[in-house]
Specification:
With 221 residues, the chain is α/β, with parallel strands linked by helices. It has a single domain (4-220), classed as P-loop containing nucleotide triphosphate hydrolases (Rossmann fold, 3-Layer(aba) Sandwich), CATH 3.40.50.300. It contains 8 helices and 7 strands. It has a 7-stranded parallel β-sheet, sandwiched between helices. The chain starts with a helix and ends with a helix. The structure holds magnesium ion and zinc ion. Zinc ion (ZN) binds at residues 93-95, 123, 126.
Length: 221
C-alpha cells in the first residue's frame, strides 16, 4: 500500500537522526564501536566470548547485547571479561534500533572504555535497515548456514564493513563451497575485509583482534 511508504520513511529518518546523536556521544569518548549482525546460531556471542580474553590489557570493552527475551548473551560477555555488559530486551522486536542503543548508552560511562561491541538480534533481514550510530557493521556468517546466504540476503551483505566467516573448522564436514560464497560476497561488497576463523579452535582470531585494536587506536586519536 503506497500510502504507508512515507510513514516507514519517517520512522527510518527519525532513527537515523538518533543514530547520529549516538555516534556523537561515542566519538566524544574516543571509543571505537561495532554493530554485529548475524543469523541466530552463527556465533555472535561466541565471537565476543573468544575475543574478550584476547583484548585483555589492550582494550577496555563494553558490550551491549540485544535479545528478544533473555540475558544469556550479556551474562556470557560479562563472564568473558567485558568491563560492562548491558542487556537490551527488545520485547519481541527482531532488531535493535537507535532508541534502544541510546537507552543502553545512558547506562554506560563510555569514557571508561576503548571499544563498544553491540550484538544485534539474530536476524539477517531488518537489523541492516536500522542504523545505531556505531562506526562499523560486522556480519558474522558461518559455514553450517550454507554458502548461499549472500545470494539470499543481498541487502545485509551489501551494507557491512567487515565479514567474519565463523566455524571454518567444519569445512571438511559440510557442503560449503568457499569459492561460491566468496563470489556472491564480491559481487555485493567488493573487497570487504573478511576474517575466516573458528571460535572453537581459535584459528584466525588474531587477525580479527588486530583489526579491532587498530581501529580503536584510530578512534582514540
Ligand atoms: Mg548471541
Ligand atoms: Zn526487525
Amino acid at each position: 500500500m503506497p500510502q504507508n511508504i512515507p510513514i516507514v520513511e519517517n520512522i527510518l529518518n527519525a532513527n537515523d537522526k538518533l543514530a547520529q546523536t549516538n555516534r556523537a556521544r561515542i566519538d566524544a569518548a574516543g571509543v571505537f564501536s561495532i554493530n554485529i549482525l548475524a543469523s541466530p546460531g552463527a556465533g555472535k556471542t561466541s565471537l565476543i566470548e573468544q575475543t574478550l580474553p584476547l583484548l585483555k590489557g589492550k582494550l577496555r570493552v563494553a558490550t551491549v547485547d540485544g535479545d528478544i527475551a533473555t540475558s544469556i548473551d550479556a551474562d556470557r560477555a560479562a563472564a568473558a571479561g567485558a568491563g560492562a555488559a548491558i542487556q537490551i530486551n527488545t520485547g519481541g522486536d527482531c532488531h535493535l534500533d537507535a532508541v534502544m542503543l541510546f537507552g543502553a548508552l545512558e547506562q554506560l560511562d563510555l569514557t571508561q572504555f576503548d571499544l563498544l561491541i553491540v550484538e544485534n538480534v539474530g536476524n539477517l533481514v531488518c537489523p541492516a535497515n536500522f542504523k545505531l550510530g556505531t562506526h562499523k557493521t560486522v556480519l558474522v556468517a558461518s559455514v553450517p548456514e550454507g554458502d548461499d546466504k549472500p545470494y539470499k540476503y543481498p541487502g545485509t551483505y551489501r551494507g557491512v564493513d567487515a565479514l567474519v566467516v565463523n566455524k571454518i573448522d567444519l569445512l571438511p564436514y559440510v557442503n560449503f563451497r568457499m569459492d561460491y560464497f566468496t563470489q556472491g560476497v564480491q559481487v555485493l561488497n567488493p573487497g570487504v575485509t573478511t576474517f575466516p576463523l573458528s571460535c572453537r579452535t581459535g584459528e584466525g582470531l588474531d587477525a580479527w583482534v588486530e583489526w579491532l585494536v587498530q581501529n580503536a587506536k584510530k578512534s582514540a586519536s
